[in-house]
Amino acid sequence: MLEGKAVVGETDMLQNMQQDALDLAAKALDFFDVTEATEIARFIKKEFDRTHGPGWQCIVGTDFGSFVTHCYGCFIYFRVGGLAILLFRGSAGPEAEANQFAALETVKV
């Protein structure tokens, strides 16, 4: 489990949604080895799509950079040991209002 092991780097999520992300990461790490980054990402993404609506993206690994546009209130980046997890809901397209999205500077792990 992640109890006390996850370190949140950046987030704009409400506390309960953050806790959902940390709980799902703990569950994923119970099911998969840390070397199975793609399976961990798939698990977290599908569960967030199911519980918080579609459009979530998840990146898991030990070395990646990112620059993403995300819906306001739908971004978290955290580490579990040497594993970094980036979870966000991407923009819905040009028909969405611009003020619903925020660009976050590059996260380098």
UniProtKB/TrEMBL annotation:
Record keyword Cytoplasm present: yes
Name of the molecule in the record: Dynein light chain
GO CC terms, sorted: cytoplasmic dynein complex; microtubule
Gene3D superfamilies reported in the protein's UniProt record: Protein Inhibitor Of Neuronal Nitric Oxide Synthase
Keywords: Cytoplasm, Cytoskeleton, Dynein, Microtubule, Motor protein
GO terms, biological process: microtubule-based process
Superkingdom, taxonomy of origin: Eukaryota
Species this protein is from: Liquidambar formosana
GO function terms (MF aspect): dynein intermediate chain binding
Cross-referenced InterPro entries: DLC_sf (IPR037177), Dynein_light_chain_typ-1/2 (IPR001372)
